[in-house]
Design a protein that fits this description.
single chain, 276 residues, alpha/beta, 9 helices, globular, binds adenosine-5'-triphosphate, ABC_transporter-like_ATP-bd, ATP binding
């Protein structure tokens, strides 16, 4: 391993310039320009297959772009050790199996143990790496996410909604500068979804320096604390900027290819199709 990497707070948290990703001869995304500042809370929206997860994988330092340059926390991908950079990045993605959930279930690991694995960024616990400070921190994070009473509960018996919040607590364990949430509400029922959104909003208010990027399919899942939005379509950025300018009926209609009307009630967004 090289020199220890620290986030460079002088510039942007994320800066993608002309980024493209090609897999098996096919461009999944291209010409992506995106700059996100520290402390901003972004939502990424777009139809199925628009390239949201692919773009996120570059921004979260999971993969290198095929073309263009990506700076993450001030460091250029390709010039830094991605694993070290990922130590400053929290990732919450139910689909990506960041925790070996099958193993956790088998070993009856508790919610507290799952959060602890966030300290080492491992799928399974590395017990000799967790001291009293880490144990205490895992308890505090569970409390912050409204899961105080779940600490000793086996993760395997926790509901999907509880797991979603435990995953966020796990992502915060390494004290990341940026957290990516890829469809964090997928599969949750209404109360569980609302609990998660409230937890994410509280987090944003309690940690002004934290940057978050959330991918979702549903406008009603966008936290009220969101400051910026980026719309994707067919592998390209359609528009990006302050939420007030981007989350409009006109832009969403163009993004999703049908006439849509958008309402905002008490900070949250609601969308519906217009009859034509
Ligand atoms: N490894 C891969 N090899 C080939 N094609 C891929 C690969 N990964 C993704 N794709 C394709 O790239 C396109 C963009 O995928 P991506 O998952 O980034 O979209 P998305 O906007 O996140 O979609 P969704 O909303 O459905 O999750 C899709 O057409 C997908 O089939």
């Amino acid at each position: 391993m090289g020199e220890e990497i620290v986030p460079d707070r002088a510039g942007a948290a994320l800066e993608l310039s002309g980024v493209g990703v090609r897999v098996s001869g096919r461009w999944l995304i291209g010409e992506i320009d995106w700059r996100a500042g520290y402390g901003e809370h972004w939502v990424i929206l777009g139809p199925n297959g628009a390239g949201k997860t692919t773009m996120l994988s570059v921004a979260a330092s999971v993969r290198h772009p095929t073309t263009g340059t990506a700076h993450v926390l001030g460091h250029r991908l390709g010039r830094v050790d991605l694993r070290e950079l990922r130590g400053h990045i929290g990732l919450v993605a139910a689909s990506q199996g960041l925790v070996d959930e099958a193993l956790m279930e088998e070993e009856h690991a508790t919610a507290h143990t799952v959060v602890l694995t966030g300290h080492t960024g491992t799928a399974a616990p590395l017990w000799d790496r967790y001291g009293p400070a880490e144990h205490e921190r895992a308890h505090r994070l569970l409390a912050e996410l409204g899961c105080k009473d779940l600490a000793e509960r086996p993760f395997g018996v926790c509901s999907q909604g509880e797991r979603a919040r435990i995953r966020v607590a796990r992502a915060l364990m390494a004290d990341p500068a940026i957290v990516f949430l890829d469809e964090p509400s997928a599969g949750l029922d209404l109360p569980a979804r609302e609990d998660l959104i409230v937890a994410v909003e509280d987090l944003a208010r309690a940690r002004p320096e934290l940057t978050t990027v959330t991918v979702t399919h549903h406008l009603e899942e966008v936290p009220a604390t969101t400051t910026h939005a980026l719309l994707m379509r067919e592998g390209r950025v359609l528009t990006a900027g302050a939420v007030g300018e981007v989350l409009t009926g006109a832009w969403l209609s163009e993004c999703f290819g049908r006439p849509l009307a958008l309402d905002r009630v008490e900070g949250r967004w609601y969308v519906r199709a217009l009859r034509v």
